[in-house]
Write the structure tokens for this entry.
Amino acid sequence: MASLPISDSNFVLGQAPVFGDPSLSTNRTFHAYVHVPFCRVRCGYCDFNTYTASELRGASQAGFASVLRREIDFAKAELQRQGFAPLRPASSVFFGGGTPTQLPASDLALMLKGLADTFGLASNAEVTTEANPDNVSLEYLSELCAAGFTRVSFGMQSAVPEVLATLERTHQPENVPTGLQAAKQVGLQNSVDLIYGAPGETLQQWRSSLEAAIAMQPDHISAYSLIVEPGTKLARQIAKGELPEPDEDLQADKYELADELLSAAGYQWYEVSNWSRSESTRSAHNLAYWRSQDWWGFGPGAHSHVGETRWWNAKHPATYQKALENDQGIQPGSNTPAAGSERIDSSTRLTERLLLEARISDGISIVDVKNSNSHANRVISQLIADKLIDGPAALKGQIVLTLQGRLLADYVVRELLG
């Protein structure tokens, strides 16, 4: 989803971003994202900020948890210095990557403890880690559960070996149900991530992956359309004609099939790419992003949003680590791993709210659309006529996408923005 940032021309590398007016955060919840940038191998389609062992250049997986604890200390000092006190407890924590489960469970537990000791966790806090099904076990998940984790999300992507090979995913498909069953056994909520639209994937292969995911009865299923990102190995393979380019019409058919099968199995869509068994098993952390709450992203390349400001950390683990090193400890206003920032004005904030909230099943208020677009009544009437937004919901004051509208979500948002 594209953002409409306003660059902060006053940002200086090595100085902490300025969060702005603390009152803007009064009604927002606080969340923490932890980026673990390690992978055993790099998948051909991936453009995330990840590193294999040969790419670390002096940084180490073994010392990562301790380095990240230094950023937690920095966050506390900086939030207090800029008037964001008392500190809000984290309503959710999400460990992503990369592959967080490349690290020992004890390292994930250490980082979570640092967050809990510093900020506290809300009484019903959701604490999630992404997981590779090949490197977790019952014992590993038990340790996470004992440390305070409440949820695990498995990177399944596909149940079809040929599709996994195209994506260069190396996990064994049979390990997904094993890992999911272990998560259920220790009491963790659970989710599986699927990707559709790999070059050459047929509609029947996608059906097989959906049916395999449903058969495991996870609490939550995400289904993302493959995006061919520039600079990836997959993009180069397609450019050379080694692999076919994904077909947009077939992508739409696959989305409609996903919604059909998941709905029939009792899963409810609550965001364009996400379905859950109930409201209680939705991803609270991702909903915080879509609802524009405050979050601090810890780790190399992680993005954050607090108050009026969005910023991002230095990408490489070695650069990130060096930025946090200081013999005198963390000093407010310095020793920041931030590499850049953007200030968000009120107009941009409203625009981004519409961009994000339009994607969730709760929808967005027609009043907010009218505040952004003087032609809102005409636009909304046309979108209802085109069956892209739900008519009865609009009569109640909310813009909610229909199935067809979800397929054309970017177009609908552009029309709403005017």
The CA atoms of residues 133 and 179 lie 6 Å apart. Residues 1-13, 327-331 have pLDDT under 50 and may be disordered.
